[in-house]
Every structure is written in C-alpha cells, then in structure tokens.
Prior knowledge:
binds cobalamin, 14% strand, 2 domains, Rossmann fold, 16 strands, globular
Amino acid sequence: MNIVPQMPNAECRMPSGNPQSEIRNPQSSGSSRRKLRLINPHSALSTITMPEIIRKMTFSRRGLFMPLNLAICAAVVPDGWDVEIVDENITDSPHEAVADVDVVGIGAMTTQAKRAYEIADQYRALDVPVILGGIHPSALPDEALQHASIVCKGDAEATLPRALRDLDAGQAKPLYDWTEVPETPIATPRKDLLDPAEYLVFNPIQTTRGCPHSCTFCTTPAIFGKRFRQREIGDIIDEISEAYERFGSKVFIFSDDNVAGNHAWAMELFERLKPLKVRWASQCDILIANNDRLLAAMRDSGCIGLILGLESPKNETLAESGKQYAKAETYIERIKKIQSYSISIWGSFIFGFDSDDWRDCAAAVRFAQRADLCMSCYPILTPYPGTVVFDQFRREGRLLTTDWDKYNGATVVFLPVKMTIDQLRHAQMAAFHEFYTPRSAIKRLKALPLKKNSYLANFAIYRGLTYYYSKRGRPLPRFSDFAEPDAEQRIARSLGEKFPG
Ligand code: B12
Ligand code: SF4
C-alpha cells in the first residue's frame, strides 16, 4: 500500500483505470432518473461477532452502529437521483459489484479502507464511476484516487451534491474539498433507508463537527477543521422527536467528538432537550467540569454518561499527546465533580506513547479504578493518516505497516520506545482484564444506587475476555507478569506465541 502521497492527476481517474477515457456520464444509462448506490464496507469492529452472551445482550443485532455517514450522503443528493444503502456489516456474504447503478459512493474509516478499495476496484472494472469519501480517503486522497473516479474530502454536504451535478454535466473533477464551501449546514440523515432491527445503535445523532484542540493522535481537527461547527438546534430536536414517534426511541447517542466543546451553544441545546425527556450519552472533554451550570443543564437534559478522552494520568504523556488543556493532577477532582451530577464516566486511555513503559499502563488502570470509572478502554496508540503521530512515525521510520486493517487500536503498527511490541500488547490486555474483574467492578460501581446496565456491561466484557483466553488455553494477562523472572515466557504464553528456545 502506498503511503507516500502523490500529486493528484489533473483529470479524473477512469473507472477502468484508463487515464485517457472520460468518466461515464450517468445520463448515458438511458433512464431519466439516476441511481446512486452507497456502500458501507465491512469492518471487523462494526459487526457484532462476540460470544453467545453478548449476542443475547444485543438482541442478535448484526451491526453495531447504523452507517450515519451514508444516511447523510443520501439526504444531500440532488433531485433526480434515487439512492440505496448497502451495509456489508449486516449482510451474510460480501457485496458483489453489479453494474446496475449509475454511480457508486463508498465511505471509509481507516479500518474499512482496504475493503473499500476492493469494492471500488470491482466497480471500476465494470465501468461504473466510484466516489470515495469519509475519514480515510479525506486523509489520503491521493491513495484513494488510485481506486476511484472522484474523492470527496470532508463533509458530504459540501462535496457530494457538487460531484454528482458535475458528473451529470460531464465535468467532474477528481477532488472535491469541503473547505471550498465551509459554511454548508450539517444535514439530517435519511434513516428511512435502513432497517432499525439490524443495529444495536440505530439512532446516533450528530450535533457538532470539528475540534479546536490539537491532540497529536486524532484525525478530527485535520479532517473536519479546528473550529467547532454546530448543527441547527431545531434540526436536532426534530430528528429526536421523529425517532421517538417512529421507533419509540428514548435513549440516544450523540455521535460527536466533543458534544459540549462550545459551552454557550451546548447550554442552549440542553435547555431545548429538557422537555423531550430523553436520555443520552456522548463524548466530551474534561473542561465541562469547570462549569456547574452546564453540568446541571446536562443532567437535567437526560445525560446519563460521557466518554472522556483522558489518555493518561501522567503529565509528560499528556504533553506528548498534545492534550494539554487539563493537568493530570486535576483529573480526579474534575471527574468526581461530573459524577456528582449523576453522570457516569467512561474513560479512554491510550497505551504506547514514547514516554510510557508498562508501569505507566498499570498506573492508568489503577487511576481508572480510583476514579470509579464505570467503564474504560485502553486502545494501543494508532498513527492514523492525517495525524501528527502519523507524520512523526513516518519521518522517523517507525511505521511497521500500512495494512489499514491493522489500524484497529488492538495491533501495534509502529515501533514503540519504552516497551517491546509484545509488552505493549500484553499491557493492553492486562489492563482490560484487571479493570473488568468482578471485584474491580463492585469497588467502582458500588452496591447502591444499583447501576444494573453498567454491571451487565462490565460482566459481559469480563465474560468475553475470560471466554477468549480459556477457549485458546492461554493464561489471563496480568501486570504482575512483567515483574516475574520469567516475564518473557509468561507474556508469550498469554499472547499465544511460542517462546523461542
Ligand atoms: C460513533 C463512533 C464510533 C462507533 C461507530 C463507528 C461506525 N460508524 O461504525 C464505534 C464505537 C463502533 C467506533 C469504533 C471505532 N472508532 Co470511532 N468514532 C465514532 C465517532 C465519535 C462518530 C462517528 C460518526 O457517526 N460520525 C458522523 C459521520 C456523519 O461522520 P463521518 O463518518 O466522518 O461522515 C462524514 C464525512 O466523512 C463524509 N463521508 C463519510 N462517508 C462518505 C462517503 C461518501 C461517498 C462521501 C461523498 C462522503 C462521506 O460525509 C459525512 C457527513 O459529512 C467518530 C468521530 C467523528 N468525528 O466522526 C469516531 C471515529 C470515526 N472513530 C475512530 C476510531 C479510531 C475508531 C476505532 C478504530 C476505535 C478503536 N480503537 O476501537 C473503532 C473502529 C470501528 C470500525 N468500524 O472499524 C476515529 C477514526 C480515525 C480513522 N482514521 O479512521 C474517529 C474519527 C475518532 C477520532 N477523533 O479520531 N467509533
Ligand atoms: S482527541 Fe478529542 S479533544 Fe483531542 S483533538 Fe480529537 S476530538 Fe479534540
């Protein structure tokens, strides 16, 4: 896979890969209406393929989140276009390309990129124009253009309608960039094109885009801009009310990076949410703890839980990660403040920064336990294209692979500094194990008030983990393994590797 950006061609790449021919004009298919097929490529992390217990808890839904990106694309196509959405994450077999549409649009996060390119190549071979969009093609448009006729960078609202109109007129360009029309409003998705019975989360609601912070590992500022962009509050309220009327939905996920990044705007949103009497969860930065009025409005609007990107309880690591807007020593106090408003906190930590060894990973777990976090996750640092760490690791020759399937937060794709690759993987699994033991769950969640759903979720994760290790006959990972004289053997055994010699 090519990671060295190339200059885009002045002309569109052709579906057949032949740079001499023209992009097929959709109207040449004969029908007056045109048809767009939108495809969500398969990704292991979007499909529920867990032990039976988790399958039961998720009511046998096959998909985790409905593809909100494609429902938004469908909402912004110009008049004269019919749209269908194909989600490979809920189908029994992989999508087969058929030339029965005028244009195909494919969206991809990095973990979906490889499959997105395979599907795009199949359609190009059938001479069907392909538009690639989403986070990964936006970060590496030159790579994506090797598989597509057109790449849309950033928001579909500001790119897709222009691309389709230009295609119709036979004047399509290879690249459409949302920054050319930056004030285009955030659209309301067409959820009617998808089946609610297929998804665990059918009603994600996006309220904002962009982020002014500069975390070195995060794609958001690079792709969606360093300015918060807020959606029309009336549109958010309408989308929620409609979901309630049509599907009886009362619990929502706000699919944002930082739902209350702009306190004044968030305050207004929460006030307008109060009369709806819904419950919701989202992601946020820890600076909300400075604002008691905001926290009260949040609670009263139905907020039940927030994911906070904490990354590390160590200042040196926070500095390295670019997360310098709050000092580590203020974390506990701020978390307790948010919890005092009956809002549960899920913490997200990242393992593998250059400043960290396994002891720092263990310290993050102890911190999460001390802070009574109801859930937490420990992804391995992943240098996503478009981020500062990607450029740094590439410059330093530390990128081990650009197989995008491996950019999943569970694989080490770069050379760490203070840990071996195996130590880093072992630290991640030890963290999940030790954080989710029933004893740890009881200490964090306490007996009263009974947080039934949190207990169930903690138990399901622990059960999934122990099932995984017992099925493979491997010992459960623990941080104490690192301190044993035969640490290397223990780690290798737990990772399922043969120890040399
Ligand atoms: C909800 C969420 C999840 C959910 C569901 C994800 C899903 N869609 O299946 C869950 C919890 C499962 C999840 C998991 C992960 N996530 Co996540 N997630 C999010 C979050 C917060 C919101 C996603 C969303 O709904 N966005 C709203 C939609 C509308 O935005 P969008 O997809 O970008 O689409 C817009 C444009 O990109 C474009 N577009 C998109 N597709 C197309 C297609 C065409 C044809 C066109 C023209 C345009 C276009 O138009 C859309 C509308 O403007 C984002 C943050 C974010 N800002 O998006 C992170 C984010 C997408 N996740 C991220 C990551 C890293 C992960 C994980 C790898 C984490 C982990 N270690 O496990 C996994 C991987 C999951 C997988 N599928 O492989 C990163 C992605 C980085 C990258 N380069 O891919 C993000 C950006 C977070 C971040 N700030 O870094 N995630
Ligand atoms: S990690 Fe969160 S706070 Fe940091 S830049 Fe990304 S969205 Fe903003």
